[in-house]
Amino acid sequence: MNDHSLIIIGGGPAGMAAALAAKKAGIDDLLILERDSRLGGILNQCIHNGFGLHTFKEELTGPEYAERYANMIKQEQIPYELNTMVLSVECLKDSNKKAITVISSKRGVQTIYAKAVVLAMGCRERPRGALNIPGYRPQGVYTAGTAQKLINLEGANIGKEVVILGSGDIGLIMARRMTLEGAHVAAVAELMPYSSGLKRNIVQCLDDYNIPLLLSHTVVDIKGKEKLEGVYIAKVDKNLQPIEETKEYYPCDTLLLSCGLIPENELSVDGGVEIDPRTNGAYVDESLETSVEGVFSCGNVLHVHDLVDFVSEESARAGESAARYILNGKKPIKETIEIKTGNGVRYTVPYKINVDSADELTHIRFRVSGVYKNTSIVIKSGEKELMRKKSMILVPSEMVDLVLKKSKLEEADEAITIFIEEASQ
Predict the structure, then answer these.
(1) Confidence bin at 357 (pLDDT 50/70/90)
(2) Whole-structure pTM value
């Protein structure tokens, strides 16, 4: 069968949650396409705990969380194909169908068709080439995720004296993992004046092991031609430029890069989906539908999340929305409200809301652009205040989830703006 109601691209936590929700909503003819050799995505290499507290009300490791979802996929008899790479997604002009070209040992190169598509491809790490660090490319420089895979899945021993650039959660977790493997982590250097990882990971992975976190610092040079010999770390000024006289040499045989994640949106772009430059993910409405009718996006391919539990929750909404689209078609849009960002807000998901088709409760997720203490999150439409929520602290590493009632949306006369109101000094 080359025709399906729904095709989900990606068999990680996002794709599986979307598939289960679509099945529950009445879609039986669906198919998950996964490029790896098993379901679970990045979770399969995340052997640390901390997953599932919201979803399953207990603490699980990454593989355990993935297995819970994979077992539900099998119980619901949802078909999936592994070792299958999607090459393109094309929306056919003469119909509402989507043409998905795939390659696998089972199919060869083949085009299959669907009424709707859920994009759930996840994200990848920012590579060294995007960081502009001078020096050679010696053995011993890894992204944190690559190091995690080598150690946790392949049992590799990658180094004994370690420096980590970037305080993303994978880097923080790998600082602890390398220490437990017998390595010495000399420092974690972070360009920004705040950490990009969760507070709990700073405490559990750095503080508990006396690993220094150097805020407003970066690696300015790499030494070693064939093998890594060491790195120079310098403090940066308020413009994030290195201060030459603060350079300090750290001998090391391993440098891990944990400098951010990038949504895997090449398929989306090639398929005509409009991308938000702030997130590198798709522009979506409240149903998580992209700018292309019948194409939905969720999980880390939409925007990078803190917790996999939030990925699963959001992706279930994408699956439900795709099911409604398949069963009921596209609803006419009467009133659309754009969501604008004000002081302190980097981006929002969604970026617009179709008021008539919105649920009684609409989730609006966003990240702040800096550290804010004792502030209020405010939503306004013109001069009309729709919501105000006090917050003790807001940090860029932790996503904020607001829930807005439909009755409040109906009060909006124009676009709504979300901003951080700081306390007067």
Answers:
(1) confident
(2) 0.92
